[in-house]
Write a structure and sequence with these properties.
The protein has 13 helices and 12 strands. It is α/β, with parallel strands linked by helices. The chain folds into 2 domains: 194 residues, ATPase, nucleotide binding domain (Nucleotidyltransferase, domain 5, 2-Layer Sandwich); 171 residues, ATPase, nucleotide binding domain (Nucleotidyltransferase, domain 5, 2-Layer Sandwich), CATH 3.30.420.40. The strands form 2 sheets. Strands 1, 2, 3, 4, 5, 6 and 12 form a 7-stranded mixed β-sheet that branches. A 5-stranded mixed β-sheet has the order 9-8-7-10-11, with helices on both faces.
Amino acid sequence: MLRIIGLMSGTSLDGVDAAWVETDGARVGTLGPCLTLSYEPALRRDLRRVLEMAPTLAADDPFLADVTARLTERHAAAVGKVSALARRAGLAEAELLGFHGQTILHRPLRPGDSRNAQGFTWQIGDAALLARLTGLSVAFDFRSADVAAGGQGAPLVPIAHAALAHAFPKPLAVLNLGGVGNVTWLGADGAMLAFDTGPANGPLDDWAKRATGGDYDRDGRLALAGQPDGAVLGRLMAHPYLAAPPPKSLDRLEFDAALREAGAGALSAEDGAATLVAFAAVCVAAAGRHFPEPPMQWLVAGGGRRNPAMMRALAATLSEPVRPVEAAGWDGDALEAQCFAVLAARVARGLPISFPETTGAPAPLRGGRVLGGLL
């Protein structure tokens, strides 16, 4: 097995998650230390600006280059901290990094696109700089091969969920609530299905920022103090994404126009937050209608599991038990980073990382690249 530090910077832009994992890409051995290294306010602000600029941003833009370097340096700092924790725990040094980078634009092919259209996905992060700063080989560029082949480029973590949940009773749904929600359905016979459910924390974080100046709705206070607006929620529920069959994936900002058109901006701070939470839960329920059979339970990861309003809305909307992933012995803060460690092992071993049932790829596809001396 390989010793890998997986790294993940999600659409919530709160920081970089890092996790030490021993894995061969098919099974998981030791799960070592993990941590989240928050982004400094200036870096988070600039990352948000890059997200907003991304549709018209040139690859050689000096501002982008500066933000990319700072982002990479923060990842290197996270690697150093996890490596120190691993040494204290008596674990061997990592030999590979799984470096997802920061997605700033994700535009895979959609139904109805012209025959000559091409999908596009863009993750920033300097793998060469990270390798120099850490002295480790780096697996990176996980999504582009899938998108180039006509896949959605997301979600990639289902095969890692399958490795981590090898012994769990199934069918099982693993729901990650970051800026966008995504779900993995695992069947008892090894079957997989995965796709993005819809907006999750992203619109709620943006709403809380405008309403309170905070980075998110802490403890769900805004949402718990309000009531969902039925008219706005009804208009949002009519969005064609919810009825579209998988495979499907979203960009973090893809629903912004729909939220404006639905009239969410006219709501009070509390009712707007409650409506966005209710909509996230409705999106998850709509996702469940695409499963081959209902799951025995939903295990919830990502920042959304810490929001009491979100967990309450999910429990009220779904028929099956809803539990944070900690109930299954996982660490919800580290899960995506652990998954990218598993994916890095698969890249290093030449194993497929995307599948027709997860990204809509035409066949199981290898992806990613390794920079450094491991291969």
